[in-house]
Design brief:
Layout lengths: L8 H8 L2 H13 L14 E5 L3 H7 L5 H6 L9 E5 H5 L9 E4 L2 E4 L5
Antiparallel strand pairs: 1-2, 3-4
Length: 114
């Protein structure tokens, strides 16, 4: 039987707080000239977007520790990143997907409210 890998939020948060992660964001912003790659807005609040999602990379490469994350080259490859403004980032297919919860064999989507 295939073992399911469950990632805790705290692990992802630890990886995102690493200096390597901050360096990756800065390098992506500099490469793109601090400009949203979709709408062209410059400056303001910008986000670094993983083209192949952060969670999918962790899953595909079976990364489950901070040490493994540091050695995973795709996480820190700036070619897998792009600068987006928040509005354009929300339109991407892998932007903070709503959590799904199982109840009585059904999957129920939980939507975030503002």
């Amino acid at each position: 039987m295939k073992k399911k890998r469950i990632f805790k939020f705290s692990f992802r948060k630890q990886v995102r707080r690493l200096q390597e992660s901050k360096n990756w964001r800065t390098k992506v912003f500099r490469r793109d000239g601090f400009t949203c790659q979709v709408c062209g807005v410059t400056g303001g609040y910008l986000e670094a977007h993983h083209i192949k999602s952060f969670a999918k990379i962790l899953w595909d490469y079976k990364v489950s520790t901070v040490a493994e994350a540091l050695t995973c080259k795709l996480l820190w490859d700036i070619r897998n990143g792009q600068t987006l403004c928040k509005k354009c980032h929300k339109k991407t297919k892998n932007y903070r997907r709503p959590k799904k919860r199982r109840r009585y064999g059904q999957i129920i989507s939980i939507r975030r409210t503002k």
